[in-house]
Amino acid sequence: MAGISSRLIIVLSFLILEGTASAQKKSKQQPLRLFLIGNSFSQNASKYLPEISKQGGHQLIIGRAEIGGCPLQRHWDSVAVNLADSSRGRAYNGRSLKQLLSEGTWDVVTIQQASVFSGDLATYSPYARNLYNFIRQVQPNAKIVFHQTWPYRADAKMFGRINGNVFAKDQKEMWIYSRSSYHSMADSLGIQLIPVGDAFWKVASDAKWGYKKDTTFDHKNPVYPHLPTQDHALNIGYFWDKDRKLAFDANHANDAGCYLAGLVWYGFLFKENPRKVSFVAPGIPEDFAVELRKVAAGVLKKNTK
């Protein structure tokens, strides 16, 4: 018994030392400094990223240059105006993109197209390249990447543009054109993509996990506070506004969509497996959370081949 006890003490001591070393390693890890140039979609995608990162033992600092609905053109136009006259072009709460980017050293800087223009490749030029060159001047050592935004929910009233004033006819077409445009521009710039749009489509197109419209709900005569069933939706969808009127948002991510996007970002930034994440965003059923982690891991694996 004494021999067994001694061996047990040795094993426990080893595990304690190993755990302590691991904790010390995590505590000494330098924070990843992430800067987002985007809009509400980048805000959605990063909503749960700090909590996911913290749970995984990673420190994260996020900087932002975000304007609601802002496309690449508007981001670049603000830079061009500011370069010509430093008192103008301060589009981010009175500050310029150059000012924000110059605050310390950023490890990763992301750019994205506004979702409504994401399927129209012509809307990316020359703005994406101009922004890329500008970021490279201000932050020469930063890794610049594209955030691939997502398609709108299947029951959206309208989808994104794919060619001038031509709009995608459905969710799948929006995803296909958006994906193609992001990849074409990323390849042209020689940068990587954070494949959030692919993850959204993977869930939406799944026979079991994809959102299906509730055909039993009377949309013409809704009664507060009842809402249609929206199981497995990744977009906000139907909700009651402050005036108790039934509102609809098929574009922005709900908590499940924000969680999925955060998982993809986490896996991309830290080279971690999203399936090992234990944090779950509020209100997401455990079985659905498991599926979202699986999807995030799958699209990252596919995009790194």
TrEMBL record:
Q: Which domain of life is it from?
A: Bacteria
Residue ranges annotated for the DUF4886 domain, each copy included? 35-199
UniProt-recorded name of the protein: DUF4886 domain-containing protein
Q: Which organism is it from?
A: Terrimonas ginsenosidimutans
